[in-house]
Amino acid sequence: MKPAIDVVRLARHPKRPTSRDFIEYLVRDFVELHGDRRFADDPAIIGGIGFFADIPVTILGHQKGRNVRENIRRHFGMAHPEGYRKALRLMKQAERFGRPVITLIDTPGAYPGIGAEERGQAEAIATNLYEMSGLRVPIVALVTGEGGSGGALGIGVADRVFMLANAIYSVISPEGCASILWKDAAKASAAAEALRLRAVDLKELGVIDGIIAEPGEGAHEQPGEAMGHARKAIAMALKELLVLDEETLVRSRYDKFRRMGAFTLDDGLSGLI
User: Fold this and answer.
1) What is the residue extent of each domain of the chain?
2) What is residue 2's predicted lDDT score, i.e. its pLDDT?
3) Is the domain 4-269 a CATH 3.90.226.10 member?
4) If you average pLDDT over residues 238-257, what whole number do you get?
């Protein structure tokens, strides 16, 4: 098993397939939709409608850039509140028309700027968590690169959550954790191990439902093969979810997330953290 810090580097690899790459591979006849109908369009979130095989779907995700100029335009994949409100608008539209939702997670976290805070960053993410928990259509989430904190979870409340083998998913970056615990970002390697942010760790903990294999050293080497594995996992998940009635779907999603954090002590006591 790779050291956690090596997985972090692979998750951040600049040639790793982006959400747009996944959308182009997974969905045909894609039509991108823009704007949150309240403030602006956030280029850090890309989303729209199309066909996954013969199934009409809504698909959306964080979008990073391929170079410095594009990353600046995309806010390095860190969404503003209008990005999360755009995502929610698309998901509620999907619910209205009975379309499953596919989300692609790849962000260091939500955008931390003053303007984003002034426009309600925390409220936008919290609203998404609440609304996604009760959305009456199937939701499948895929962590393709970085899954950072609430910025990731803002589109991550799903019936099935998958991760690429070299993706990460954590409440904080290793550098941020090391800076808080040891006042030294250089200890990021130790923090990465302690955070248990690898796909294998999170599968063991029951946070995710499956791991998508990556060829060679990572998805950047053969993106088509990695995305092909992802397509198979998503197809299987939708096949299982689309036969469920709305009440069962929502209840199962609720129970799934309530089970996270359950623990048992040696003295027989149990509870939730």
Assistant:
1) 4-269
2) 87
3) yes
4) 96
pLDDT of residue 271: 61
pTM of the model: 0.93
- Band (pLDDT 50/70/90 cuts) for residue 266 is low
What single string gives the DSSP state of each residue in the chain?
---HHHHHHHHT-TTS--HHHHHHHH-EEEEE----SSS---TTEEEEEEEETTEEEEEEEE---SSHHHHHHTGGG---HHHHHHHHHHHHHHHHHT--EEEEEEESSS---HHHHHTTHHHHHHHHHHHHHT-SS-EEEEEEEEEEHHHHHTTT--SEEEEETT-EEESS-HHHHHHHHHS-GGGHHHHHHHHT-BHHHHHHHTS-SEEE---TT-TTTSHHHHHHHHHHHHHHHHHHHTTS-HHHHHHHHHHHHHHTTEEE-TTS-EEE-
For 159-181, what is each residue's pLDDT tens digit?
A: 999 999 999 999 999 999 999 99
